[in-house]
Amino acid sequence: MNQKTIFITGGASGLGREVARFFADKGWFVGIADINAPGIAETAAMLPDGMSSQHLLDVTDRDQWARAVEEFGEATGGRMDVMFNNAGIGSGGLIQDMEPAEIDRMIAVNFTGVVNGAQACFKILEATPGSCLLNTASAAGIYGSAGLSVYSGTKFAVRGMTEAWDIEWEPFDIRVRSLMPGFIDTNILSAVPNGSNQTGREKLESVGIEVSPVEIIGQAAWDAVHGKKLHTTVNKTAKQLAFMARWFPGLLRKRAAGLASGLEDVVESGS
Predict the structure, then answer these.
(1) Rounded Cα distance, 147 and 25, in Å
(2) Among the residues of 52-195, which ranges form H helices?
(3) 30, 3 contact by CB (below 8 A)
(4) Cβ–Cβ < 8 Å for 12, 43
(5) What pLDDT shows up at residue 90?
(6) Residue-level pLDDT at 257
(7) What is the spatial distance between Cα 108 and Cα 134, in angstroms, rounded to a whole number?
(8) pLDDT tens-digit series, residues 103-139
């Protein structure tokens, strides 16, 4: 099978769905993996016939990873040009107010799930010349985000692992890259947090935080996979954060403190 292929976790909605659509439009075969079976089917229905495979996958479960990768390999002749390690969950709030189970789940999906994906897909990526592992980090991995501390910490970890794996896997002809988006307008931001009369998007925009359309993520992922940048910042907010973190960290800290209230109780997924 000479057709290019991409395997996407968190493919049932949001960033994963948009990347699936973008790459399928470019003629790529897409493996759609997620814990949400109806969402997987909805994404598949948006793609051309015969251009996708569907995989029920909890990224915290190594056995499910092994089965999903095996199934994808059977569908593609053992080829995986890109693995988009995208599945993620997140919630905001002050650390002292967060539920322990909520913290544990976020770390399990956003950190352990990414590690599981790298391990599970290494051999099939190695067997595909010029392959790429693309991890979804976040602008929250550029500077610690008050009101999103645990989420931010997991995305710092993804950023660090991306840098380390790109060095480790260079001898195997596998590139490792990350996407670092700011807030993206996915369905999760349409929800109204408890105790609020505003959607997540409205609350963020009310305190001056940019929310970008999800359509920008497909091109960003394409550029990350085909470019030389280790980390690809996505949207104006992420680019500004990266600049300020490097040159004006004190000013960024003051700005972050002023925006913290806008992040509390806002949930983002896969970004």
Answers:
(1) 37
(2) 62-76, 100-107, 113-126, 149-168
(3) no
(4) yes
(5) 84
(6) 55
(7) 19
(8) 999 999 999 999 999 999 999 999 999 999 999 998 8
pLDDT in tens, 219-265: 999 999 999 999 998 877 766 666 565 655 666 566 655 555 444 44
Cα–Cα distance measured from residue 199 to residue 207, given in angstroms and rounded to the nearest whole number? 13
Element at 179 (helix H, strand E): strand 174-181
Q: Point out the residues that are catalytic.
A: 151
Q: Decide if 123 contacts 66 (C-beta within 8 A).
A: no
Q: Please state, in angstroms and rounded to a whole number, the distance separating the CA atoms of residues 128 and 124.
A: 6
Cβ burial 149-176 (10 Å sphere, 16+ → b, else e): bbbbbbbbbbbebbeebbeebeeeebbb
pLDDT at 210: 65
Pull the structure tokens for residue 115: 């590690």
Structure-token pair, residue 225 = 């996979």
Distance CA 196, CA 202 (A): 10
What predicted TM-score, i.e. pTM, was given to this entire model?
A: 0.85
- The DSSP secondary-structure symbol of 61 reads -
- Residue entry with tokens 């988009």: 84
Measured CA to CA, the distance from residue 23 to residue 7 in angstroms comes to 11
Q: Which of 186, 189, 181 is nearest to 221 (CA)?
A: 181
Separation between Cα atoms, residue 39 and residue 139, nearest integer Å: 26
Return the closest-CA partner of residue 150 out of 99, 109, 90, 204.
Answer: 90
